[in-house]
Design brief:
With 320 residues, the protein is of the alpha/beta class. The chain is built from 10 helices and 15 strands. The strands form 4 sheets. It has a 7-stranded mixed beta sheet with strand order 5-4-3-7-8-15-14, with helices on both faces. Strands 2-13-10-9 form a 4-stranded mixed beta sheet. Strands 1-6 form a two-stranded parallel ribbon. The radius of gyration is 20 Å and the shape is globular. It binds S-adenosylmethionine.
Length: 320
């Protein structure tokens, strides 16, 4: 494996985001901080829950369409994966592609990034693997050592849904720059559906999603010396009809004070910290977002129940 190219998410950046987010009138924490090693473990556990249909359905689409995906990507591609996590779907896609030459996983969760890069390298001997440990919302270039080959962006897991409109557009523009005019992308998007199904997916009976959400406070305690009482907050999933998003919140169970970095943070009973939004798209909405970032949709594969879509996208022609 090539060295991990790294702009590590530092404690300073974490503390700055926590202090900024928790000093706002509507308290908020950026969702990328949900993913330390424990958070990534919990996310993997979520993907195996009955209620969490997105992973199951997306995996089925990728498996059923493996041949078409390989045709779309062409010979000897380089796969660039954003928010690669455990890299489970990656193996499926790499296994389908025709003689892939390189794989560049990009993720903020360093332990998961390194472990999955090693595993993929051992399963695909000869594949060039160059992990990049950084925030995919920051502006960056891919390592110059990435081998030549058609670049295919891969952004599964409906992680695009965690980005607001401005972030999503900037992300898609950057991915287009990374793959170049001759490249392409495969992207998984969760579709709008009845609110009951959506809320169950983000508030499971076993309480795994609750643990995932509460882990952000545990992480503040562990890494920043914060003093949050986890038993004084509860997880809540809410539907925001204006944003078309399931929101995760941590609801304060009492009037209380917590602290981090020597700063006291006050909560009223019922006040919440908004920790994640998962936006849901329909085809037209996603197509117009992607179009504004320089992409056209070549294929939209959807499961038979219409729950999830995998889009194959190509750069729009540049007007000369
Ligand atoms: C919803 S999970 C999806 C994981 C996997 N791709 C899948 O499809 O199951 C989101 C992944 O993106 C990573 N992630 C979230 N925000 C990120 C950011 N701003 N920059 C880089 N990685 C990020 C998380 O660490 C996590 O691995």
């Amino acid at each position: 494996m090539h060295d991990v190219s790294s702009i590590v998410a530092t404690d300073d950046a974490f503390l700055a985001d926590v202090l900024d987010g928790l000093s706002r009138a509507k308290k908020v924490l950026p969702c990328r901080w949900l993913y330390d090693e424990r958070g990534s473990d919990l996310f993997e556990a979520i993907t195996r829950l009955d209620e969490y249909y997105p992973t199951r359905v997306e995996t089925t689409i990728l498996r059923d369409r493996a041949r078409e995906i390989a045709d779309f990507a062409g010979e000897a591609p380089v796969l660039i994966e954003y928010g690669s996590g455990a890299g489970v779907k990656t193996e499926l896609v790499l296994g389908a592609l025709r003689a892939p030459v390189g794989y560049v996983p990009i993720d903020v969760a360093e332990e998961y990034l390194v472990q999955s890069a090693r595993r993929i390298e051992s399963r695909f001997p000869g594949l060039w693997v160059g992990p990049v440990n950084r925030d995919f919302l920051s502006v960056f270039d891919l390592p110059t050592s990435v081998p030549p080959g058609r670049r295919i962006g891969f952004f599964p897991g409906s992680t695009i849904g965690n980005l607001d409109a401005r972030e999503a557009r900037a992300f898609l523009s950057q991915m287009r720059r990374h793959v170049g005019q001759g490249g392409a992308a495969i992207l998984g998007v969760d579709l709008r559906k009845d609110v009951g199904t959506l809320l169950r997916a983000y508030d499971d009976r076993e309480g795994v999603t609750a643990q995932f959400n509460l882990n952000i406070l545990a992480r503040i305690n562990r890494e920043l010396g914060g003093e949050f009482r986890l038993d004084r907050f509860r997880h809540e999933a809410r539907w925001n009809a204006v944003e078309n998003a399931v929101e995760m919140h941590l609801v304060s169970l009492a009037d209380q004070r917590a602290s981090v970095g020597g700063v006291e943070i006050r909560f009223r009973e019922g006040e919440t910290i908004h920790t994640e939004s998962s936006r849901k798209y329909d085809r037209e909405g996603f197509e117009s977002l992607a179009g504004a970032a320089g992409w056209r949709i070549s294929e939209a594969w959807v499961d038979s129940a219409g729950l999830f879509s995998v889009f194959a996208m190509s750069p729009r022609a540049v007007r000369g």
